[in-house]
């Protein structure tokens, strides 16, 4: 989490830094700051709150011109969100100023072993880094050497940008595990946690690998290993359409991204079909899947929920046994593995630290890994053996929507391809059925008014809500509850319809909203029975069913799609319900409290 941007060039840096930080705000938004260097020294502006507050503060202060600067938007890990804990942080003498993204695991040890005499002004692990660099500078009288030696001592994750007040021609950079890119321009260079931040400036980027140091100057960039050995690396062109990262006429990114789902499914069909309109995957992925005796899906949050659906597909369509695990649990509590496991990491961002921790561990054990991600070149993609891309376009709203459906669609393709390779008969044509899904999604995204009304009736005044379903509908209920709670702050739970009566039904009282999914024929009567049980105890029940299974009292009927693919469409009214519930409560839909888009701390 946290976003970093930096600029060194011929123009004033502040506008570029502020624009970059706005684009990085999805990575954290509890405090922010900028440091710029000119002939009069380093000028620091820090605020608690959003970039808009930082901008106001800079407008109000007598802002200076400077052609070198670094900026940061924070998601607090060490120390509360406050101006004092906001980055950039400075060493005691003011010689060094840094921004940092990540977590320094041994910061207490470093403090104890090297910095006992230092008076710290913040509670952050970041201040330890900058003080350590100053301490090492006092010893070596050489900034590069001090920077290198400090990086050797750090344990944990970091992406760092640093200014030395006595060196206006260099931006010092390093990274380990946290993302950071160098953007190359004509007479200037930039650094950013994500190319989205600096796309206006350049589309040429240099990747930095873990434990490298980069000296970024105005007209050239030097990459070094920690031992000082210079590395040669070619830039690549970032293939992000700048218009994809703008909201356009939409009030929120989340609404835009919900609306983009039909087109995302069409993109996925286009990317993964051959000239005979059949699913096609890389041979290497197909072989790896076929060689495995068990697949372990590892993911977090919404991606974990997509994994639960993926398990159903792989077991039902491709007859491969699958386990799905929450990444943060798997790392520390690994189950007994099968003889030939294949690990599938599902991650929109490809940067989730909990998932990466598992990837590092299973690679050490020698197991193969496939990453399903929206971000090619992300850490999880680079470090796995194989990657399947989501082709969903940038997802900016913190609440994931189009990535969830894209993950499910790609998992459909994966399961169908393996089934075909194993000579198993599929009861449906996946490409044709996904095309039907895409049209059904369009019908649903056109029903916003109806769904907003339902949100008003069921969710506007409630303090809690339940989502229930059986089978695939249960998995979607988990996602619906997560979506509602994360953006509207209504306490919500997803439950297996049959499980409520084993305890949780005690929470049902007069008017408690219970939203039930009824899209699965084999459990249509039993889920409706579960609805009756809660209605008898005062619940305000809303049933979302599918054409063909509907009853007169159902509040919302989904267009018919193949029964296995219902999660792709049943989630859409649920995403919209969460959206309108949050909107009606005046919540910040795209940037809910306490959260960040890319969770790069364990
Ligand atoms: C919820 C949400 C999160 C993410 C989770 C994993 O809307 O977005 O639960 O799904 O943090 O992130 P990725 O998929 O980037 O690994």
Would you write up a description of this structure?
This protein is of the alpha/beta class and 602 residues long. The protein has three domains: 3-242, Aminohydrolase, N-terminal nucleophile (Ntn) domain (Glutamine Phosphoribosylpyrophosphate, subunit 1, domain 1, 4-Layer Sandwich); 254-442, Glucose-6-phosphate isomerase like protein, domain 1 (Rossmann fold, 3-Layer(aba) Sandwich), CATH 3.40.50; 447-602, Rossmann fold. 36% of the residues lie in helices and 22% in strands. The protein is built from 18 helices and 25 strands. The strands form four sheets. The chain has an eight-stranded antiparallel β-sheet, with helices on one face. Strands 5-6-7-8-12-13-14 form a seven-stranded antiparallel β-sheet, covered by helices on one side. It has a five-stranded parallel β-sheet with strand order 17-16-18-19-20, sandwiched between helices. α9 packs parallel to α13 (402-421), α9 runs antiparallel to α16 and α16 runs parallel beside α18. The model has no long low-confidence stretch (mean pLDDT 95). Bound molecules: fructose -6-phosphate (F6R). Fructose -6-phosphate binds next to α9 and α16. Fructose -6-phosphate (F6R) binds at residues 300-303, 347-349, 352, 355, 399-400, 482, 486, 599.
């Amino acid at each position: 989490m946290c976003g970093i941007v930096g600029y060194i060039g011929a123009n004033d840096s502040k506008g570029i830094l502020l624009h970059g930080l706005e684009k990085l705000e999805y990575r954290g938004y509890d405090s922010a700051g900028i440091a710029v260097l000119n002939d009069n020294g380093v000028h620091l502006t820090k605020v608690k709150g959003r970039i808009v507050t930082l901008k106001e503060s800079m407008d109000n202060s007598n802002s200076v011109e400077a052609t070198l600067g670094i900026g940061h938007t924070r998601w607090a890990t060490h120390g509360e969100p406050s101006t004092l804990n906001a980055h950039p942080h400075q060493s005691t003498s003011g010689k060094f100023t840094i921004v940092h993204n990540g977590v320094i695991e041994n910061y207490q040890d470093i403090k104890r072993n090297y910095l006992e005499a230092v008076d710290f002004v913040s509670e952050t692990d970041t201040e330890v880094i900058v003080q350590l660099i100053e301490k090492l500078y006092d010893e070596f009288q050489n900034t590069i050497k001090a920077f290198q030696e400090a990086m050797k001592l750090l344990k944990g994750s970091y992406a760092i940008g640093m200014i030395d007040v006595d060196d206006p021609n260099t931006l010092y950079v390093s990274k380990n595990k946290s993302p950071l890119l160098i953007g190359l321009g004509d007479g200037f260079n930039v650094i950013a946690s994500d190319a989205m931040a600096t796309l206006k400036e350049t589309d040429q980027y240099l990747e930095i690998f873990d434990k490298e140091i980069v000296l970024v100057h105005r007209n050239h960039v030097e990459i070094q290993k920690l031992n000082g050995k210079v590395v040669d690396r070619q830039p690549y062109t970032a293939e992000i359409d700048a218009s994809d990262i703008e909201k356009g006429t939409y009030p929120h990114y989340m609404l835009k991204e919900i609306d983009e789902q039909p087109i995302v499914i069409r993109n996925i069909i286009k990317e993964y079909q051959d000239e005979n309109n059949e699913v096609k995957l890389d041979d290497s992925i197909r072989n790896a899947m076929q060689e495995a005796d068990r697949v372990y899906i590892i993911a977090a949050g919404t991606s974990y929920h997509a994994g639960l659906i993926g398990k159903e597909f792989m077991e039902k369509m491709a007859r491969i046994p699958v386990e799905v695990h929450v990444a943060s649990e798997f790392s520390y509590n690994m189950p007994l593995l099968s003889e030939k496991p294949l690990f599938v990491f599902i991650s929109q961002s490809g940067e989730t630290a909990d998932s990466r921790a598992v990837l590092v561990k299973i690679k050490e054990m020698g197991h193969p890994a496939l990453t399903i991600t929206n971000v090619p070149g992300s850490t999880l993609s680079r470090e796995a053996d194989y990657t399947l891309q989501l082709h969903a376009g940038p997802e900016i709203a913190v609440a994931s929507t189009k990535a969830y459906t894209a993950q499910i669609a790609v998992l459909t393709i994966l399961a169908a391809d393996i089934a075909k390779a194993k000579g198993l008969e599929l009861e449906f044509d996946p490409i044709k059925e996904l095309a039907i899904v895409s049209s059904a999604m369009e019908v649903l995204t056109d029903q916003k008014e109806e769904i907003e009304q339902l949100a008003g009736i069921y969710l506007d005044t409630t303090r809690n809500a339940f989502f229930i379903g059986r089978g695939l509908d249960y998995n979607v209920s988990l996602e619906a509850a997560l979506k509602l709670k994360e953006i509207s702050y209504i306490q919500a739970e997803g439950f297996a319809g049959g499980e409520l009566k084993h305890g949780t039904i005690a929470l049902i009282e007069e008017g408690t909203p219970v939203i039930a999914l009824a899209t699965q024929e084999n459990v249509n009567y039993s889920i409706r029975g579960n609805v009756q049980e809660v209605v008898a105890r005062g619940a305000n029940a809303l049933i979302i069913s599918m054409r063909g299974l509907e009853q007169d009292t159902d509040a919302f009927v989904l267009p018919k799609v193949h029964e296995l693919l219902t999660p792709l469409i049943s989630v859409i009214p649920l995403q919209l319900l969460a959206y309108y519930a949050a909107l009606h409560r005046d919540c910040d839909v795209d940037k809910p409290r306490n959260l960040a888009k890319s969770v790069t701390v364990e």
